[in-house]
Amino acid sequence: MPRRLLEQRARAFDYLFDAVVVTNLEGTIIDWNGGAERLYGYERPEVLGKPVSMLHAPEDVAERTREVISIVERDEIWSGEIKMVRKDGTVGWIESVVVPVTNDDGETIGALGVNRDITERVRTEEELARLAHYDPITGLANRSLLLDRLDRMLLHVRRTKESFAVLFIDLDGFKRINDNAGHRVGDLVLKEAAQRMERSLRESDTVSRLGGDEFVVLVDRVGVPEDAGRVARKLLGTLREPVEVAGREHRLSGSIGIAIYPFHGTSADELLTYADDAMYRAKRRGKDNFQY
To answer: Is the pTM of this model over 0.70?
Structure first.
């Protein structure tokens, strides 16, 4: 290849907007360009001779490096998305294409990766996924995610022969707060009630907001009906505690209906319907109580 063309290629390598990282087959960095300096925050002398794993998130290091090297050793191209770590410790995502580097005899002696920052795209996708599955006011699972988790739980208990409970919760007194204090205060009260319920549950349980002042809790691994009753009493207790917003106390309570798989229903529709019916029975019996 003419020397002038080689010089032009070398100049283009350094001025590419994308980050280019070159390693040997041991995963040691042997070259990189200005785009890599801008992306990762390291100057070239800081990384030469260092393992390329220093640029990857710790949980990805071992598996990702082995995967890429094994593919380029077969004279193939690897492409994918990688979680990266910059010099300042911030984490992002790159879209990477890695090709083999060969010597004059055609033997693979290393790998050249062309990396593009896709951090903002990944964050946007994550935010869209969050909005699709979580309630924007309380941050709880929404109806869509609740139904998905309920279906998964049903598949699990049908195999294990275990039981679980569905608790349908309606906040007593919330409409009065919303009407008298306004929606902004109402939203803050809802958020506080949601956080209290979450703190009262185990990690394996799910609390979700269906809309308005209605919530559904999935209680995992219920041995006897009273197990669900204990959870309901705990939730009622935490909901009774005054909620202070802007220096003013607001009081709530809860009406809770309980349906237990498989005793009260064996499908998502049955369990939600019977728990909803039991909740209305709790309201008719004076509120601030639970019914099976």
So the answer is: no
Point out the catalytic residue in the list 172, 205, 213, 276.
213
Smallest CA-to-CA distance from 91 within 129, 51, 63, 60 is with: 60
| Beta bridge mates, 56 | 84
Is a pLDDT exceeding 90 seen at residue 85?
yes
Q: Where are the beta strands (DSSP E) in the chain?
A: 19-24, 29-32, 78-85, 91-102, 108-117, 164-172, 206-211, 214-219, 243-245, 248-250, 253-261, 289-291
- What the chain holds in terms of domains, given with CATH numbers, is 3-123 (3.30.450.20), 134-291 (3.30.70.270)
Q: Kindly report, residue by residue over 110-153, the tens digit of the pLDDT.
A: 999 999 999 999 998 888 887 788 998 999 999 999 999 999 99
What is the length of the chain?
Answer: 292
Torsion of CA 38, 39, 45, 51, to 10 degrees: 180
CB atoms within 10 A of CB 274: 20
* pLDDT digits 0-9 by tens, 12-31: 566 567 899 999 999 999 99
Is 110 within 8 Å of 20 (Cβ atoms)? no
Catalytic: 227?
A: no
| SS3 label, residue 266 | coil
